[in-house]
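Suppose you are handed a protein chain with no further information: no name, no annotation, nothing but its sequence. What can you learn? This example shows the usual starting point.
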Amino acid sequence: MPEPVLIAHNLTKTYGKLRAVDSLSISVNYGELVCLVGPDGAGKTSTLRLLCGLERSEVGRVKLFGQKVMKFSPELRRRIGYLSQNFSLYADLSVEENLEFFAGLYDVSDYSELTESLLEFTRLTPFRKRLADQLSGGMKQKLALACTLVHRPELLLLDEPTTGVDPVSRRDFWQILFRLLQEGKSMLLSTPYLDEAERASRVAFIYQGKILAFDTPEILKTRLKGRVLEIVTSDSRRVYQKCKEERSFLNVQLFGDRLHLVVPEGYEKKHLESLLSAEKIKLQSLAEISPSLENIFIHLLEARTGET
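A reasonable first move is to predict its three-dimensional structure. Written in C-alpha cells, the prediction is:
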C-alpha cells in the first residue's frame, strides 16, 4: 500500500495566547475523502491553512506526495487545490471570465478546452455569461470549486464548502465531489455537518485544536458504549429534563422533538415507558436506532469537558 498523499504529525499553531491547533496529526490516502469535523472555532480552518502553506506550524512536520515539506514551492502548490471558507470570486467578472482569470494565475495556457470541461462538470454551462455576483449561493460555491480545479490539482483541501448552501445545492456539490473521487482525487474536507461526515472514508473529530478521534465512521460508532433509544414526543423539553435527572442513562441528547438516550446493554424499553407514563407524558414513538456520528461526537465532547 502506498504512503498517504498527506501526512501531518504534531502540528501546532498559536495566535497570541490562543492555541488554535494543538499537537494535531492527520493523514489522507490516495483517492480518499477525509472529513475534519468540529464546531466553529475548533481549529478546522487553521489546520487547512497549515497544510497548504498559508500558515507556518511552530511544531510538527508535513509530508505531501511522499516528500517532507521544507517549503511550499510553486511546483508543490500546483499539486494542491485549496478552497477557502470565503473564496474570493470577482463579482464583476462572468463565470467564464473568473475561470479564465484563475487559469492565468496558474499559467494554464490551454484553458479553453479545460474551461468547457469544468463548466459542464459543475453544470454551470447555461450560466457562463452571468456575473459571479448574480449567482445563487450554491452556484457561487460550484464556481469556486471549478476555479480551484482549473490547475488540475491532485489533492483538494476544502474548507466548509457547503456551509450556508441550500439542501439541493449541497446535494449537487457532493455529487461533484464523488465524481472527483472516482477520477482519483484525494480530499480533506472540513465541515460542521455530521451527516456529511457519514459519507467520508475516515472522519477526524476536532475540538479546541485537538483531534478527539480519527477513524472510519463504522469504527467510530463502536466507541459508544451502550445502545441508542430514540423518543419522539411533543413534550421533548420536559422529557429531556426528566431523563437528565435519571442516573440509569449514560447520555441524553435533544434534537428538536426527538431525544436520543444512550442506555446500558440489557436496559429494557419498558422501564422508560413506565418512567414517562408516571409523568403523564405521551410518546409518539420509541425505538432503538443505530448510533450516528452526532451521538459519538457529543459523547466524546462530554467525556472531554466533563459534562454529564
